[in-house]
Amino acid sequence: MVNMEKVKMQKLKSTEELNAYRKSLNKAKDPNKVRIAICNSTGCNAFGGEGVRAAFEQAVEAQGLKKKVEVLKTGCHGFCERGPIAVILPREIFYQKVAIEDVDEIISSTILKGEIIDRLLYEDPGTGKKVIHEHEVPFYAKQKRMVFKDNNRIDPTRIDHYIERGGYSGLSKMLTSMSPGQVIEEVKKSGLRGRGGGGFPAGLKWDFCRKAEDSPKYLICNADEGDPGAFMDRSLLEGNPHLVLEGMIIAAYAIGSKSGYVYVRTEYPLAVKHIRIAIEQAKEKGFLGDNILGTDFSFHLKIKEGAGAFVCGEETALIASIEGKRGMPRPRPPFPAVSGLWGKPSNINNVETFANISYIILNGGENYAKIGTEKSKGTKIFALTGRINNTGLVEVPMGTTLREVIFGIGGGIPKGRKFKAVQMGGPSGGCIPESLLDTPVDYDAITATGAIMGSGGMVVMDETTCMVDVARFFLKFTQAESCGKCTFCRLGTKRMLEILEGICEGKGKPEDIETLEKLSEFIKDGSLCGLGQTAPNPVLTTLKYFRDEYEAHIIDKHCPAKSCRPLIAFTVIKDLCKGCGLCAKVCPVGAPKGKKKEPFSIDQDICIKCGQCLAKCKFDAIRIHRRAPVTTLI
Amino acid sequence: MSALKQEQLERLAVIIENYRGKEGNLIPVLQEAQGIFNYLPEKALSAIGKELRIPLSKIYGVVTFYAQFYLSPRGEHTIKVCRGTACHVKGANEVLLAIENITGLIDGQTSDDLKFTLETVACLGACALAPLMMIDDDYFGQITQEKAKTILGQYGES
């Protein structure tokens, strides 16, 4: 008989002890207990998720239901659009947009009487039908959740929840039956490629580091998720930090490392908190530290918080930052596998890459390789955002088409507008047009379009998005984030940005397009790291697929998406205006002028084109027009 | 500028002591020092340099490289407007414009009464809530120009 209390406090010293501990946890679990899984990650919290959870806890306590009902504070469920989300287990009743006011009713009706509350259910916009169960919601039904499997079922601050569901069994299997060489072999067989953007085979990378002769060796987790529009790493660290830790510990064993770092963005306070708790708990249980699970393998892990620099996502810059220096990249070779942190062999992988490892060890590389396409294996998590109905995080097998992700899972474009492009790969990526929507999610197929897989951001754009403005937006980002080391990146991006700003202001010249193309070539060739080498991609892909928009801006001084402020004007349609004066009330500069009950007009000289009047007008009387070209006298 | 308090300098001394002799200590020391002063005053930087034997020029290089470090005092509340791709596509520019109009500040500025600092950030990683802003540690999702006004009002800005 295992003494639970005693085991709870103790280090687990062998696989047998871990198995017995897991068994005891599952035995102690009451299968009839109702569990309310509430998302308390950054997304749902911004909608008040924390308050809803607290209200549930209070109500359960007040009504003396603690023995029957457990409130589970989970990580991200993925369907951020519908937050705060609460799933009632084991029935998997899916309630969305839950407010504090709904809590008492959920307890009295659903939990005590088993009744479904219709208004909290998700309505499928396709069929108009209400969906009761989580797995029937189309957003989830079409995904394959492998890495994200437990994110919505466990409390990330409780290691027991992870262990209960089989956590750390990949690690124990490895420690009892595999040599480091075998681990690398399995990861190679799996075909797993780096999820941070580069797509380099993980097994090969580990092998390089293992074979490096110097010691000690360092293992680093790159959690400096910097691509605007990507937040899967944040959700994994917040929602299932032990999954990432387990992958790291396995990798450390494989390459022969005794110490490592998690380099995490300081902009992610909750992720930092959860990974910190996870490290402490893993140490207590004997998964980290000296003599892991009673073997002679030891691994120590520290957290390094970034200080806000996008370029630190690049390996060599990240290493410089851990060393306490300016995070500037250096030429490679030597690669970090040979000479990395403090000049020692180092291996760096992204959060999501590590999160795939325990599955590979448990199920074997060959089984993992059955998922996906020929050269891209496994699943990939995407952050679906922008002009799309179902924003959130989705996990699909490699090979799924972009169309399926955006329309099948993402539910298409809101307000009946037309899809224009999907931006993939952040500032290093590009915009993929509608004609290429049947491209499968696959490193090489995406690269062929001119974009890149990147870390998995998918920002959807509709007809109201100006593609020249999108290119300008990314150049502004890379220009600001360029560390300044390479001349072409430092100055080239600045020149490109100036040209793009000019085009958006209606000051474009016919030769601008050619200049942009030339500069792109120079910057790609003349930059040391990925930031510079890929910085022109957003411009090149928009030029390739949306050249007509550039030409409209340059030649006709017209923004087809009616988005570039200097090229548009807000005007009042006299026949529709009722003279209510709301526009004048919301306008921050007092541009709408007129008398009540008579048609208003907008003073173009002072209008700042913020669009508040348009949003406020109840009579659809305000429209955006192209602004007559300003004639300058020279 | 008000003089640094003795108590703050004592806390700084403790931090420096904790990191003395440790590899890669500069950035964590700066982060914790900023936690005390809410920015990095010159006097604190000199003390760090002297004690940890790091040239002030190198410290200045690191401080100015990372977006998180500040060389001048910050407002009581920091308003961060996200300008990530998703936010941009969903109208972050208009939100920023409204906030600039309400506060009279532009990106990177602190109000004279040290009440607010306005800054834009590359991505807050909560893109599903776009457009998004943060005031101190609180997130505000799906912001409109009007909503921004109401929220700022709650922090005493009208």
Describe what you observe in this structure.
The complex is a heterodimer of chains A (634) and B (158). With 634 residues, chain A is an alpha/beta fold. Chain A has 5 domains: 109 residues, Glutaredoxin (3-Layer(aba) Sandwich); 210 residues, NADH-ubiquinone oxidoreductase 51kDa subunit (Rossmann fold), CATH 3.40.50; 84 residues, Ubiquitin-like (UB roll); 89 residues, NADH-ubiquinone oxidoreductase 51kDa subunit, iron-sulphur binding domain (de novo design (two linked rop proteins), Up-down Bundle); 62 residues, 2-Layer Sandwich (Alpha-Beta Plaits). In chain A, 39% of the residues lie in helices and 14% in strands. Chain A has 26 helices and 19 strands. A 5-stranded mixed beta sheet of chain A has the order 12-11-15-13-14. Chain A has a 4-stranded mixed beta sheet with strand order 2-1-3-4, covered by helices on one side. In chain A, strands 9-8-7-10 form a 4-stranded parallel beta sheet, sandwiched between helices. In chain A, strand 13 and strand 14 form a beta hairpin. In chain A, helix 19 packs antiparallel against helix 20. Chain A is globular and about 80 Å long. By secondary structure, chain B is an alpha+beta fold. Chain B folds into 2 domains: 60 residues; 78 residues, Glutaredoxin. Chain B is built from 7 helices and 4 strands, in the order ααααβααβββα. In chain B, strands 2-1-3-4 form a 4-stranded mixed beta sheet, with helices on one face. In chain B, helix 1 packs antiparallel against helix 2, helix 1 packs parallel to helix 3 and helix 2 packs antiparallel against helix 3. The longest helix of chain B is centred in the N-terminal third of the chain and has 14 residues. Chain B starts with 5 loop residues before the first helix and ends with a helix. The mean pLDDT of chain B is 92. The interface between A and B is large, with 65 and 47 residues.
